[in-house]
Write a structure and sequence with these properties.
The complex is a heterodimer of chains A (about 260) and B (about 250). In chain A, about 85% of the residues lie in helices and about 0% in strands. In chain A, helix 4 packs antiparallel against helix 6 and helix 4 runs parallel beside helix 8. Chain B has nine helices and ten strands. In chain B, the strands form two sheets. In chain B, strands 6-7-8-3-9-10 form a six-stranded mixed β-sheet. Chain B has a four-stranded antiparallel β-sheet with strand order 2-1-4-5, with helices on one face. The chains are: A mainly alpha (about 260), B alpha/beta (about 250). The structure holds adenosine-5'-diphosphate and magnesium ion (MG).
Chain lengths: ~260, ~250
């Protein structure tokens, strides 16, 4: 009875650990292929465009509304102890350290992990991956490396743009609805923010970008057979990327801001 | 020469190959026949290393295919996949010229494109097809593009997985003649999977029948009709009754 219960708990735990091990090996393999030729420049450029440029609208909109909402919340919360004036500072630090990278990462996970997993999964079930191999082209080098590299470089840039737009959202709400003076709001923001507030967010962005593309590629490459297999791979990629982003965010925040 | 001996492959409980022994002489055209799902495609993939056999050895010119330089080994092969397996993000000519555009011996783009258009012409496709995407072609046209891609780099060994399935009879005839021509002209070794008995007669030097995970019969195409094996006779005459069950 107790043995059965333990087995019931143990099995999924072991499965998760095994999956985590496989993902780690896949990541190490990706890094190894990243530093050995050949390098596929055209695939990298396409990935950069797909992951970076085309994610700008969704990341920008998310940041804008989040910055605005944050300003409203801090104003009403701060009013309880007459601290309405801290809105610019808290919006800036909240966006740069946490919300910019995390929400940016999650939006990219939704948009990019899914599309990478679906694309590579479809290639797998239609034998295109096998065809690549027979044409002497390594699927890790041709498919995984360009996407992972592009995401690792592009997501920090997206985060930087998101931070700026989020802070602008807070500023717009601040001056139109909360009665802040525009110049004072901006001065408070720039005087208060330190380099590492922004820099830590960009480092987080790079890690989240790596996670997103790696999950998309991993689940795509290991897709089951048929349309159902691709569907399952896509779902798993988005879920795994999102959970790993939030877990990594906690770990990184602990590393960066507790000493 | 390609030699397979004692090749086994299972997918979970599904024992697909159960000891395949087969030899394909250099410059010969071997045709593999057998019912759907008997493991013909898996057999080709084992030779290419796309599927890892559970047991047995496969050699090319005496050399074990699992050892040595993979790239050099694969450079000697061309493969037409059953479903075409075209890269749908690339144009037709880029698909055909894929190998020519990459690797240490990469050609300039113009030259690779010219070769691609010539190969497309050989499989009965017009140059105007070259700039389309695979998704814009009919199934039969995709198959022919896959064929053009398989022969683009003039490989020594070519595998064709159901090259004429989904083509009309005239186009099947064209493709059969083309495969025969490639073997005769280029001296390539060919291994073709087909269900179409007219293809077998047009393409084959040797025929092998895969059934229940083993080579049930093999021999020269001329001896096929007179062979007494009841499994082979049922298959080549397409009879519904016989030792091979209709329900699988
Ligand atoms: N990657 C795979 N995973 C699991 N089963 C497979 C795989 N590839 C082939 N099979 C199974 O092996 C058997 C033979 O398949 P295949 O070689 O495609 O048959 P065919 O002779 O029609 O080409 C089928 O039952 C198929 O379901
Ligand atoms: Mg098949």
């Amino acid at each position: 009875m107790i043995a059965r219960l333990l087995a019931q708990i143990g099995r999924p735990v072991l499965a998760v650990l095994a999956a985590f091990g496989r993902v780690t090996l896949f990541g190490a393999d990706t890094l190894r292929h990243m530093v050995t030729p050949p390098f596929y420049g055209r695939e990298f450029a396409i990935a950069l465009l797909q992951i970076g440029w085309f994610s700008l609208p969704v990341v920008g909109l998310t940041a804008f509304f989040t910055g605005g909402a944050l300003a409203l919340q801090i104003y009403s919360g701060g009013a309880r102890f007459s601290a309405e004036a801290v809105v610019p500072q808290i919006v800036a630090i909240g966006m740069a350290r946490e919300l910019g990278p995390v929400l940016g990462g999650l939006m990219v996970a939704a948009r990019v992990a899914s599309s990478i997993a679906a694309e590579i999964g479809t290639m797998k079930v239609t034998e295109q991956i096998d065809a690549l191999v027979t044409l002497s082209t390594h699927p890790m080098k041709y498919l995984t490396v360009p996407r992972v590299l592009a995401a690792t470089l592009a997501v920090p840039l997206l985060v930087a743009v998101g931070d700026s737009i989020g802070i602008s959202g807070g500023w717009l709400v601040g001056i139109t609805k909360l009665g802040f003076n525009s110049a004072t709001y901006l001065k408070n923001t720039t005087d208060f923010l330190e380099f590492w507030d922004v820099g830590s967010g960009l480092v987080k962005g790079a890690v989240f970008g790596f996670i997103v593309a790696l999950m998309g590629c991993y689940f795509g490459m290991n897709s089951g057979r048929g349309a159902q297999g691709v569907g399952a791979a896509t779902k798993a990629a988005v879920v795994a990327a999102s959970v790993m982003i939030l877990a990594a965010n906690y770990v990184l925040t602990g590393m960066f801001f507790t000493s | 020469m390609i030699t397979l001996s004692g090749v086994h492959k299972s997918f979970g409980p599904n024992r697909v190959l159960r000891g395949v022994d087969l030899t394909i002489a250099k410059g010969q055209s071997m045709v593999i026949i057998g019912g759907s799902g008997t493991g013909k495609s898996v057999l080709l993939k084992c030779v290419l290393g796309l599927v890892k056999p559970d047991a047995g050895t496969i050699t090319l010119e005496g050399q074990d295919v699992t050892r040595g330089d993979r790239d050099a080994f694969l450079a000697r092969f061309g493969m037409l996949f059953q479903g075409g397996a075209l890269f749908d993000s690339l144009r037709v000519w880029e698909n055909v010229a894929f190998r020519l555009l990459r690797g240490p011996a990469a050609m300039p783009k113009d030259q690779a494109r010219a070769v691609a258009i010539e190969k497309l012409r050989r499989v009965g496709l017009k140059p105007s097809v070259a700039d389309l995407f695979p998704g814009e072609l009919s199934g039969g046209m995709q198959k022919r593009v896959g064929l053009a891609r398989a022969i683009a780099a003039n490989p020594e060994v070519i595998f064709f997985d159901e090259p004429t399935t989904g083509l009309d009879p005239i186009m099947s005839g064209v493709i059969n003649a083309l495969i025969r021509e490639i073997v005769v002209e280029m001296g390539s070794t060919a291994m073709t999977i087909t269900h179409d008995m007219s293809s077998v007669r047009a393409i084959a030097d040797q025929v092998a029948m895969l059934h229940d995970g083993v080579i049930r019969w093999s021999g020269p195409v001329g001896e096929m009709d007179a062979a007494p094996d009841p499994y082979l006779q049922q298959f080549i005459h397409g009879r519904a009754t016989g030792p091979i069950e209709g329900v699988r």
